[in-house]
Amino acid sequence: MKSFLKLQSVEEVLAHIQRFSPLSAETIALDQALGRHLAVPFTAPHDLPGFDRSTVDGYAVRARDVFGAGESSPALLEYAGDCRMGEACSLVLGEGQAARILTGGMLPAGADAVVMVEYSRQAGGTLLELTRSVAPGENMLHHDEDAAAGQVCLPQGRRLTPQDLGLLAAFGQTQVTVHVQPRIAILSTGDEIVPFDTTPAPGQIRDVNAHSIAALCRACGACVTLAGLVGDDAPALRCTVGTLMASHHAVVISGGSSAGMRDHTVEVFTSQPDSELLCHGVALSPGKPFILARSGNVALMGLPGHTGSALICARVFLRPLLARLQGRTAPAQAAPGVLARLGRPLASAQGRRDYIRVRLEALPEEEQSPVPGLPPLRWRAMPLAVPSGCISGLTRAQGLVVCPENREGLYADEIVSVELLDDSL
Amino acid sequence: MKSFLKLQSVEEVLAHIQRFSPLSAETIALDQALGRHLAVPFTAPHDLPGFDRSTVDGYAVRARDVFGAGESSPALLEYAGDCRMGEACSLVLGEGQAARILTGGMLPAGADAVVMVEYSRQAGGTLLELTRSVAPGENMLHHDEDAAAGQVCLPQGRRLTPQDLGLLAAFGQTQVTVHVQPRIAILSTGDEIVPFDTTPAPGQIRDVNAHSIAALCRACGACVTLAGLVGDDAPALRCTVGTLMASHHAVVISGGSSAGMRDHTVEVFTSQPDSELLCHGVALSPGKPFILARSGNVALMGLPGHTGSALICARVFLRPLLARLQGRTAPAQAAPGVLARLGRPLASAQGRRDYIRVRLEALPEEEQSPVPGLPPLRWRAMPLAVPSGCISGLTRAQGLVVCPENREGLYADEIVSVELLDDSL
To answer: Is pLDDT above 90 for A332?
Structure first.
């Protein structure tokens, strides 16, 4: 029987992934760019907002003219005119003068602050009383307060958020240059697997992994080819992979990744032209029989056939690969999660990273604040005893708890960080 | 001057949102359903995997026949045949018999466990020695271990994840019934605003909010109509809103939501047929001038014009509205975040909820473990002093820290939960 020579650590595999090169760039419409990754840094072409702008309804003034003003000691100023919305203000404010202005209006030359309308009253003729002093710059935005010309606003590799698109719109960027979307081919292998739209005969099961892995890829911004099923037939698998490599940035096979009697994936990958096997076997549970190879910059990934293991491996390795191919410079080092108290002890093995599926149960209020100085701890994480061959282990879980390589287990009642499986908000 | 009668709390507004009804259902292809919300619970139509299945390469046995077996005291069994992959196993295992089986194969009748191939050796003729005992059920999945017929696997209102699509595929669900996507019309108002593909004259600025809010809506599964710009003209705005209401589930206006001289949104909403004003003014910073109204089940939402405030309000109120319209039953009560040490003190006001934009800085290693029993604290949250009228306050921030209503501020060095603004993983 074949066997794994040496298990690599999760971190070693993640380092291999960083050796792939980001894909080329394309220019697309701004409103299509959510979640895409900037291929070039974005530098402010001009100041934003570009002119001094009021943030309230009131009177534009020279701050020194209302110094010391109050309800019982109002400053007396001369009304010099109105600033009209959406137009350049042609007024030039002299000493002791004020101009009426609305939120968003352009300040007149000479003004350096705005007094809110609530603190003004008419004083006869063109005179008005202002009953509140303001500091220079108060109730206004400076012409370059949002961004100054030449400033790098968004770095290369940035994954574009709603606020980023807003910033780019503010500068009139109708198009944006981003890395192309990775094209990923997904194959399943195994003589017992049938397509999901088929009724399985006894001893057969439907293809699960193609659909779950495809969805994960799409959520990461990839274009997916569902390349179907290949039986336990090394030549057929070799031929199919070879064809898919020509038109995809990665070929992902689930099944056949172990070192057993019908595991052909590793030999199929290593027989491709100029291929390099980067990893076969990871110190990871569930998911030990994981394969990563490359042929040029095309990634070849072998996931376990067990449905739970396949999806855990995809979260741990395929997501970072897709981020890397899209040129992401700052992998989310601050991975969000929730803190929870572990519901029962867990055994692991030194040197292996375990991903434990947990359900979150609300803690009763009296148990929520056990650690001084910490926000309330609302959850108990109950490990699920579901085999890695069951997809329901992941649908029933709300999150994953990691037992790191340097631990032989986790204690009951230990406070752990839970990575949520429903990534929605 | 008009003014807010009474500010509502964030929780009061969220309660209004729960009064909207979920939208109708439609049936779509499984592979299009990621992120959509189930309109009916999903009940397992049959057992999964549907037959007893090996999870290893080895020999199917009756566990009692290998009781006590070990390296120096092997159990001697009779080889009864092979279980072929993807076929019903026609063997019936008698006492003292074993059948060869591969990972994923169907167990023969009579077998209740599998001994891994590593613990087997030939013993001449049809005899073999097994050198490891197994418990009943070991190294196999029971026919209903992933799911039992009739079991509710996914509840109504579930937001479908990659693993959910895998489970549905396992049951051959090529289509799935989900709530329709909300159709959201987005308008901007303000005489000083010009379309983003226009060069603004002095005193004008480009429309930012339409693009950032549209992206946020799309990320939440909505279909967006960018309905353009309307000036500070109540009749024009009333007419446009009335038209959009006929074909959308919500109309969102940014700008004109306050109680100032050119704020028409609230009167435009209340003048629509059968409209009900649910809220004008929230005890929230940034974002006080927020409006929520309804006309039947059509939501009318007024966001502040200030670009930062608009997007915060959209995160706090528009996202839950979109979840509600899509029938989401379990709003993510376990909101993910990272814990951080606050970099400087912050003042707030009793009774108001503040959303503070923060940058995350990595803490030096010696400061990472200050709380016994807690995972390492890796981050310092540095509040950004950027006005709410600047979009860059959100593009420069990595997250938001909430100062709740019952606090008058937060202390320097306090441990806070940071909601990440880049929701990607």
So the answer is: no
**Would you mind telling me the total number of residues written for chain B in this entry?**
425
- Whether residues B163 and A394 touch (CB distance < 8 A) is answered with yes
Q: Does B345 touch chain A (CB under 8 A)?
A: no
* ipTM score for this prediction: 0.93
**In sequence order, which residues have a C-beta less than 8 Å from that of residue A253 and are 6 or more positions away?**
A187, A188, A189, A237, A241, A265, A268, A301, A302, A303
Which residue positions in chain B have pLDDT lower than 50? 1, 332, 424-425
Look at residues A328, A315, A319 and name the one whose alpha carbon lies nearest to residue A299. Answer: A319
| C-alpha to C-alpha distance for A22 and A276, rounded to whole angstroms | 18
C-alpha distance from B214 to closest chain A C-alpha (Å): 8
Cα-Cα-Cα-Cα dihedral of A274, A246, A324, A319, to 10°?
A: -110
Distance, CA of B309 to CA of B305 (rounded, Å): 7
* Residue A166 β-bridge partners: none
Which residues face B354 on adjacent strands?
B285, B403
pLDDT digits (tens, 9 = 90+) for A244-300: 999 999 999 999 888 877 889 999 999 999 999 999 999 999 999 999 999 999 999
H or E segment at A15? helix A10-17
Contact assessment for residue B29 and residue B290, using Cβ atoms and an 8 Å cutoff: no
Q: What is the pLDDT of residues B109-158, one digit of tens each?
A: 999 999 999 999 999 999 999 999 999 999 999 999 999 999 999 999 99
Residues of A in contact with B375 (CB under 8 A): 339, 415-417
Nearest CB to A336: which of B1, B194, B420? B420
Q: Which residues pair with A276 in a beta bridge?
A: A294
Nearest to B17 by CA among B214, B351, B292, B404: B292
For residue B273, say if its preceding peptide bond is cis, omega within 30 degrees of 0.
Answer: no
pLDDT digits (tens, 9 = 90+) for A299-326: 999 999 999 999 999 999 999 999 999 9
The pLDDT tens digits of the residues spanning B333-347 come to 567 788 899 999 999
B151, B163, B216, B386: best to mutate for the A interface, most A CBs within 10 A: B163
How many angstroms separate the CA atoms of B249 and B183, rounded? 5
Q: How many Å separate Cα A206 from the centre of its chain?
A: 32
Partner residue facing B207 (CB), from A87, A162, A169: A169
CB within 8 Å of B138: residues ≥ 6 apart: B63, B113, B114
Closest-CA distance, A85 to chain B, in angstroms, reads 6
Nearest beta carbon to residue A146 from set B117, B390, B425: B390
Q: Which of B81, B122, B83 is closest to B101 using CA atoms?
A: B83
Contact B207, B197 (CB under 8 A): no
Structure-block tokens of residue A253: 């096979």
What region does A96 belong to: left with phi over 0, alpha with psi -120 to 50, or beta? left
H, E, C per residue of B168-225: HHHCCCCEEEEECCCEEEEEEECCCEECCCCCCCCCCEECCHHHHHHHHHHHCCCEEE
**Is A216 within 8 Å of B162 when comparing Cβ atoms?**
yes
* Rounded (to 5) percent helix, strand, coil in chain A: 20, 30, 50
- For residues A67-93, give the mean pLDDT: 93
Q: Do A218 and B34 touch (CB under 8 A)?
A: yes
Closest Cα to residue A110, out of A87, A94, A128, A89? A94
The number of residues making up chain A comes to: 425
Contact B205 A146 (CB under 8 A): no
Q: Which chain A positions have a beta carbon within 8 Å of B35's beta carbon?
A: 219, 424
Cβ within 8 Å, pair A205-B49: yes
Q: Strand A275-280 to strand A298-303: parallel, antiparallel, or no bridges (unpaired)?
A: unpaired
Give CA A347 to chain center in angstroms. 32
